[in-house]
Amino acid sequence: MYIHMHNSAYLQPFISTIVVVLCNIQVCDTSAVEYNVTFHTVKSVAMRIGPRFNVTCAPLMLDDMYLKYLESVKYLRVIVSAAKYFKYSVEHIRMRFYRLFNSLYAKKRSANSELLTVELMKSYCMPFILYATEALPLSNRIIYMLHNCVSTGTAKVFSVTHRDIIMSVTQLMNFRRLTEIIERRKQKFIDRLLQLDFFTVVLKVYSANVFL
Q: What is the pTM for the complete model shown?
């Protein structure tokens, strides 16, 4: 169960019963009254993640308002979708990548340099693809879709279409494999977590998402 309460998010393991979720929301309501704060119920929503994600769920109330159940929620620029397992969408990432790449490519004629266009793509487009990849469980399909963005951009810059030639060009341009880049980012992410005093709690949540 995923609950987005305005500027905060609450993720309850799907093995928990709806009674547990209701109790936790009641705690939020009680704490809000105690500390004299209110929730923005219009921006507060709920979404189910688990084997019964597409089954009608009991209504949830926060601050005397019913929460809407959505099929997808955007939080911290990551779109999480209702599914059997933790799943997120990359369509908005691909759209932003191509939008920015097309803007750079349109100025290619004035620069008259493929190498410059590739370097600009590395500096300005790649961060969109790699955003939050160190903290999210990535399927092979997701990685392939992200890698395809880089391949398509490279093919357009050098006007090539054959798959082997595209791979050769990306290697010559010093584009590391996306899987390698993501693995290195994950390792750095874990290393930073290990330096935190509460790393055991964070790693427990992280591993629950990765090894679900």
A: 0.71
171 and 152 assigned to the same domain: yes
Query: Which 3 state secondary structure label does DSSP give 135?
Result: coil
Distance, in Å, from the CA atom of 182 to the CA atom of 49, rounded to the nearest integer, reads: 25
Contact 178, 147 (CB under 8 A): yes
Q: Are residues 118 and 64 in the same domain?
A: no
DSSP string, 41-108: GGG-EEE--STTTTS-----EETTEEPEE-SEEEETTEEEE-SSS-EEE-HHHHHHHHHHHHHHHHTH
State the DSSP code for 134: T
Q: What's the domain range around 188? A: 90-194
Number of domains in the chain: 2
Q: Are residues 95 and 171 in the same domain?
A: yes
| pLDDT tens column, 120-154 | 898 999 998 999 999 888 888 899 999 999 999 99
How many Å apart are CA 114 and CA 152, to the nearest integer? 14
Answer yes or no: is 205 within a domain. no
